[in-house]
Design goal:
By secondary structure, the protein is an alpha/beta fold. It has eight helices and 18 strands. Helix content is 26%, strand content 28%. It has a seven-stranded mixed β-sheet, sandwiched between helices. Strands 12, 13, 14, 15, 16, 17 and 18 form a seven-stranded antiparallel β-sheet that branches. A hairpin with a 2-residue loop joins strand 12 and strand 13. 40% of the residues are buried. Its EC number is 2.1.2.9.
């Protein structure tokens, strides 16, 4: 089976590697143009491009796929299937119509829940008990196509977006290989998505990192897990905005005399901050220009005393 592949970040690179390891013919990869990154803001190739070049696969990096000229490499490839994973570009109907057997998308949620750009982050933030991978037949809508296969994974209390991403990326690779083999045998059945239960996972904005300690400790702990590795949490203390990376709920029902944001305890185990409901023990923090550190090491260079208050970062 002749397959073209469209994807950009590490999540997609895992799927491409799985396809190559399974022996599929992948003559063309589409990925986003190189972007500036790092301290020097030099151009960096996407994770998918790096895998493709390492395997000797032709790479095309159109800014958009709207015009016949931007679509030409895909037409010339004449794939039977286009596999898409976290590509980052909208595919117009003209592109969806190119592959003889259509376009298959690897989506990191149990559709129709969490359609859109950030399904892993939003599932953790919402406190979902599980998530998973859906292999979907693409149409012109936003993650609205018929479902071809689905598998679930529990979301552990310790899961961050980073850890859950890696588990889902591996699962997605396994599932797309199985789906393509079933497609080759004519054994892949499409099931329309349910009309009920639709939610949208909007892209994570950096402004969301600012934590409001008038919220409950449970909500804030989930947000920190959801925002690791980007954008982390942020709060101001002693006039300085610091990043908050990890925390645990002390006791959502504990009696406390402090106001929301007030530091109740400081120890090597963490900085306990009163919340609108319960309290949060901060265990991993980062000062401006510094590294992400366990609380014990952080406090050596940035002392915080009980009675100090955390406020929402500007």
């Amino acid at each position: 089976m002749r397959i073209a592949f469209a994807g950009t970040p590490e999540f997609a690179a895992s799927a491409l590697q799985a396809l190559l390891a399974a022996g599929f013919d992948v003559p063309l990869v589409l990925t986003q143009p190189d972007r500036p990154a790092g301290r020097g803001m030099s151009l960096h190739a996407s994770a998918v491009k790096q895998v493709a070049l390492g395997a000797g696969i032709a790479v095309d990096q159109p800014e958009k796929l709207r015009t016949p000229e931007q679509q030409q490499s895909l037409r010339d490839c004449a794939p039977e299937v286009l596999v898409v994973a976290a590509y980052g570009l909208i595919l117009p109907q003209a592109v969806l119509d190119i592959p003889r057997l259509g376009c298959l998308n690897i989506h990191a949620s149990l559709l129709p829940r969490w359609r859109g750009a950030a399904p892993i982050h939003r599932a953790i933030e919402a406190g979902d008990a599980e998530t998973g991978i859906t292999i979907m037949q693409m149409d012109a809508g936003l993650d609205t196509g018929a479902m071809l296969s689905m598998r679930s994974l529990p979301i552990l209390a310790s899961d961050t977006t980073a850890s859950l991403h890696d588990k889902l990326a591996a699962l997605g690779g396994e599932m797309i290989v199985a789906a393509l083999r079933a497609l080759e045998k004519g054994e892949l059945a499409a099931v329309p998505q349910p009309a009920e239960g639709v939610t949208y996972a909007s892209k994570i904005a950096k402004s969301e990192s600012a934590l409001d300690f008038s919220q409950s400790a449970i909500v804030l702990a989930r947000r920190l897990r959801a925002f690791d590795p980007f954008p982390a949490g942020a709060a101001s203390v002693n006039g300085v905005t610091i990043k908050l990376w990890a925390a645990e709920v002390v006791d959502e029902a504990r009696d406390r005399t402090g106001q929301a944001g007030e530091v109740l305890e400081v120890s090597d185990a963490g900085v306990v901050v009163a919340c609108g409901e319960g309290a949060l023990r901060l265990t991993e923090l980062q000062k401006p220009g510094g590294k992400r550190l366990p609380v014990r090491e952080f406090l050596r260079g940035f002392p915080i005393e009980a009675g100090t208050s955390f406020s929402k970062a500007a």
